[in-house]
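Re-run with default settings, no changes from the original entry. Doing this only to confirm the output is reproducible before filing.
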Amino acid sequence: MGWATALKIDKANLRSRLLVSQLIVLAVTVSALATVSRLSTPRYFVVTLERMERQGIRIQQVKGQLLEGFEDAWIRGMLWSIVLGGSTAGGISYVLSRRIIRPLLRMEAVTRQFAAGDFSSRVPPLEIPEFDRLGHSFNRMANDLEGVEQRRRELVGDLTHELRTPLTIVKGYLEGLADGAIAPDPKTYNRLVVETERLQRLVNDLQELSKLESGYLPIEAQSIAIAPLITQVVNRFADQLIGIESLQLTTTLPSDLPAVWGDPARIEQVMVNLLSNALRHTTTGEVNVRAYTQSESGKSFLWVAVSDTGIGIAEADIPHVFERFWRADRSRDRASGGSGVGLAICRRLVELQGGQITVSSQQNKGSTFSFSLPTNPVM
């Protein structure tokens, strides 16, 4: 017997139990009424006859006949009351039972479709307010599940797409080396190393993003001075630009910057990612890192902005820049070594530290990525 059949039996049993329970309540009520009436009504009738005799009405000779007639009338009336009242109450109980069970059967049908992999079904509006609220809650859960399933499919598709290119390149070189079509020189081996490093970087980024989204990557927040950290990261990248006169890396750091509350290693990770992206997409001009404070809703935040004069981002693409595997130009970014999850990691790291990250950009004019950190401990 399948689970669907068992569920139908359970629902049928529930309907029967509801009907039987209401009939039991009716039977108890009728029994109590009949018992009380049977014990008390004749006594009240006798008292009434005695009161009439005290008032001078002589009914002693017909008193027995009156009692017998009363009992006969009472029995007939009680039988008709039970038959008519029981039938009416039973019919109403049956209708109410069906009305209560019908929404549950609808939910059962929707859950069966969910079990079959169809996440598009929803519970329609229901007449009973409590069930209607339950249906709304179920639909919200269904929307969440549908979103999770959609993101899972997108992740599998994107991951397959990202892995296919380096694996194809590695396979091609290995086949060429095996056939003798490619010379086993240092350049060839270096290309294989580059592709395997790209695979390793993608796997590491995915693992870190998974830990961030599941809450397994701890944030060791503390009070830190942000200016020395920014300077240290910028100097590391500035060393790579020695001799490149067409591109400058500058900082704008006020001397009175307050301490922030965050994890130094994670802040550095965010800055390295943003600076890497800015330098990767800027060939001439300037990449600037500046910091400033701003109050929001009575709380003080320190903002770090990384601006460049690079290729920029199209307005239609700006809402997607923090999504996993999103790229404005897939071929260019893949060639430059981006994994497509760096900005998604940055967003999650900043959010875990109580801040937010934003982007503003104009195509062919440059972009500015800014993230905030609280200057006071997050309670």
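DSSP finds eight helices and seven strands in the chain. The first helix runs from residue 3 to 54.
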